[in-house]
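Ticket #4471: structure export looks truncated?
Reporter: QA, pipeline team
Priority: medium

Steps to reproduce: submit the single chain below to the structure queue and open the exported record.
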Amino acid sequence: MKPLSQIRFLLRITRTHGIIRRYFVVNGFDGALTMLGIIVGFHFSAPASLSVIISACIGAAIALGVSGVSSAYVSEQAERRRALSKLEDAMVTDLQESAHGDAARWVPWYIALVNGSAPLVISLLIITPLWLSNSGTHLFISPLYAAIIIALILIFFFGVFLGHISGISWLRSGVQTVLIALLTILLIYLFTGV
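Actual output as written to the record:
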C-alpha cells in the first residue's frame, strides 16, 4: 500500500475524489437501508432470537461488502485502463511506469475498498445494539428499536452530508433521506402482511 500523500496525489491526477465520496455515500446509504430493512422485517415477523437476526444482518453486511469491492474494482479497473490507453495514444508514449500508470493500477483498489467498506462498517454500527444485548448488556430500549434508531440517525447524516456537498439545506436533505427510510419501513409493513 502506498503512503497517504501518494494516494492523495494519485486521486488528484485521476480526479477521482468525487467518485470515492459518491461511492462512500451511496454504498453507506445502501448498507444502512439494507440493515434497516432486515431489522424491521424481523420486527414485523414472528419472534426470532437475536443470534438469528445478527447472523442474517452479518450475512447481508458481508455480501454488501464483497459486492461493493468486486463490482467497483472491476468497473474502475476497466475505466482506469481505458483512460490510460487514451492518454498514451494522445502522448504517443508508454505511461506504464509513470504516475498515471501507478494510478491506473492503484486507484481501482482504493475505490473498491471504500465501496466495500462503507456498507460493511455502517451495517456493523447499526447492529451494535443487537450484539450488546445478545452478550448480556442491558439496554434501556429493545435492541431492535435501538438498531432502527441508529440506522435512522446514520441515514439522516448521509442526507446532511449530501446537502453539504450539493450546497442545499442540510436539514432538508437529511429529512429527505429519513423520509426514504420511513417509506421503506412502511413498504415492509405493508408487504409483510402484518
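Status: closed, not a bug. The export was complete when the record was re-opened. Leaving a note from the reviewer for reference: Residues 4-191 form one domain.
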